[in-house]
Amino acid sequence: VSHSKDLLQLNLTRMSAEEEYPDLSQHNNHMAKFLTLDMYKELRGRATSSGFTLEGLIQTGVDNPGHPFIMTVGCVAGDEETYEVFKELLDPVIEDRHGGYKPSDKHKTDLNPANLKGGDDLDPNYVLSSRVRTGRSIRGFCLPPHCSRGERRAVEKLSIEALDSLSGDLKGKYYALKNMTDAEQQQLIDDHFLFDKPVSPLLLASGMARDWPDARGIWHNDNKTFLVWVNEEDHLRVISMQKGGNMKEVFNRFCTGLTKIETLFKDRGHAFMWNEHLGYVLTCPSNLGTGLRAGVHVKLPNMSKHAKFEEVLKRLRLQKRGTGGVDTAAVGGVFDISNADRLGFSEVELVQMVVDGVRLLVDMEKKLEKGQSIDDLMPAQK
Amino acid sequence: MPFGNTHNNFKLNYKVEEEFPDLSKHNNHMAKVLTKEIYGKLRDKQTPSGYTLDDVIQTGVDNPGHPFIMTVGCVAGDEESYEVFKDLLDPVISDRHGGYKATDKHKTDLNFENLKGGDDLDPNYVLSSRVRTGRSIKGFTLPPHNSRGERRLIEKLSVEALTSLDGEFKGKYYPLKSMTDAEQEQLIADHFLFDKPVSPLLTCAGMARDWPDARGIWHNDNKTFLVWVNEEDHLRVISMQKGGNMREVFRRFCTGLQRIEEIFKKHNHGFMWNEHLGYILTCPSNLGTGLRGGVHVKLPKLSTHPKFEEILTRLRLQKRGTGGVDTASVGGVFDISNADRLGSSEVYQVQLVVDGVKLMVEMEKKLEKGEAIDSMIPAQK
């Protein structure tokens, strides 16, 4: 635990712990489950060497008691050290969120697309699009809830340098949010690439929208199948996507691009934040490990109304979202189906679950269309 | 505040040019004043409670402009902010408050008997009258920066003070977090309830943190005097009633405010005040009296007259929609109030409202009859 003398001048402990302890009585998020008064007492005097404190960590969870669709995490990291300095709180949160992942567990990274079996033949009559995203944090900089404008701009500058040097299928262009033309903006919206200033109070309350749109931007390749968001919820969000059901190709491009980008950053003296316990270190504890969400937009009008839909998803270790992403509802029987896990499984394993699981869901949909039962198709718990 | 001051020293690793905000698209008082030089001079400073320049300006960086009003774009985190960051705040204050100089003195006058008239605004036009101000309690930091412990203690002190009031001021406190549905509906119906701020001007300044912890509403049994605890300021004090008797509203305002101040002083927590800035509040726009005295008034004809804005300017009044700041008017009914806060007293500002509204109602009546109002256009006050 580092304390610099300068940081101790901060009024971290204005009044007693009892007087400062948040009221979490109406709350239902991972942070609220674990932050007892005793834990608050223990952690509130600490700060990481960049000055991130417990209050910064938990503010979003205090301000947002719960969410109608999902159990939110309720805390964020301000820098890489956060996960160490505040481990008393974050280890139980991580364990609760990531299916019992223990502080002594090791996380496996596998970005070799050759290890994925199949995935090139999901039925495009049902699977409308396929997408894989992850996040990456650049070591040496604070994370979006805490970073300064100077840091954010340095992250942007490094990112542009690295991305501009990509070639071939990955050759592309950067569009800074703050000086985008109307035409560019419209095109990015039409391509479903544009990200807006966050409106979710979960994000706003953590401070990650400060100084918007300064140093935020979107890079994408000329083919519009690979894009990178700079300085949104994480330093980088890397996305590979295309219409139809060829998840194998999407994942190939994802791994190839990501590996190239990582090399380019390393060449410039900046590794990605990673360790053998938590895998890739990201802003939200829910995205630790792979940070990977692989998903499809798939038509399941019959399946989604089936009494066992939720159970099937659970057994397949998948989750559903609306087609607008997190915090949205499904439209017209089309669902966003993706892996539920992030940590404790490798990238290949997670994408495999999506490929196999979606294939099964589509088979079930077809059966239900014909009025047939799906009982014999019910999967075991993965 | 969790994300601002805690790594101020860490930010000093970056050069001024690298940290200076991009204000090229901005139109607020802070953006007009803040140069790289001022930023460079102030960025390593903090108040004793740890409030920094970036904290002061965050709301103005995040909110480039506003369609209806020229926003301030900066807030104070504590009483000392106005001293430590005076190189920024003095020019902002001067620009916002009509040239108010760093050496000027502000006059406080809460003697309602000094108001002339004001009891006879025509209730056929003036639907309601209201006076509000804010007060900050000395020894605590302000809403953009205060901790839960401080906010709760402010609430505790406020509730003690308010529940000891009697007579026309006898009333009850309703904490936001334990309000029943019935209480909530009644407070909404009475137009008393304040909600979690949605305006990004406020949320970006950090004043909605921990909502609704230690926030609440106190009002008297008569429903003519209410106090908001821990919204944009420690206290917002409001006197209001239907109709045009602004004199009565102001009498109750002054009387209640002075009683509350006495009780706080007894507990060694006076209100933040100094002879230069008057009452110290979160937003520099509310310094001085912090007073907004206003009416909801029907001006369907006058409001569409080409000289409406000019008249308001000359009368030193401003218009808002009937939902308050950030809203538009509905059905020709406007919220008309004093534009000034600093450099003139409470009595003076309410007098402007009383005299100005009386004139505008007379203009409205003339326009109704199809007559011209040219002879009535006032001189600049």
Account of the protein in words:
- The complex is a heterodimer of chains A (382) and B (381).
- Chain A is α+β, with helices and mostly antiparallel strands.
- Chain A is 33% helix and 14% strand.
- Chain A has an eight-stranded antiparallel sheet with strand order 2-3-4-5-1-8-10-9.
- The radius of gyration of chain A is 21 Å and the shape is globular.
- Chain B is of the alpha+beta class and 381 residues long.
- Chain B has 13 helices and ten strands.
- Chain B is globular.
- The mean pLDDT of chain B is 93.
- At the A-B interface, α5 and α8 of A face α1, α5 and α8 of B.
Q: How would you classify the quaternary structure?
A: heterodimer
Helicity level of chain B: 25-40%
Strand order of the largest sheet of chain A: 2-3-4-5-1-8-10-9
* Sheet of most strands of chain A: 8 strands, antiparallel
The Rg value of chain B, from CA coordinates, equals: 21 Å
SSE order of chain A? HHHHHHHEHEHHEEEHEEEHEEH
Total of DSSP H or I helical runs spanning 4+ residues of chain B: 13
β-strand number of chain B:
10
What gap, in angstroms, lies between the N and C termini of chain A?
39 Å
Write down the overall mean pLDDT of chain A.
93
- Uncertain residue segments of chain A: 1-9
Q: Per the principal axes of the C-alpha atoms, what is the gross shape of chain A? A: globular
Q: What is the helix/strand order of chain B?
A: HHHHHHHEHEHHEEEHEEEHEEH
Largest sheet of chain B: 8 strands, antiparallel
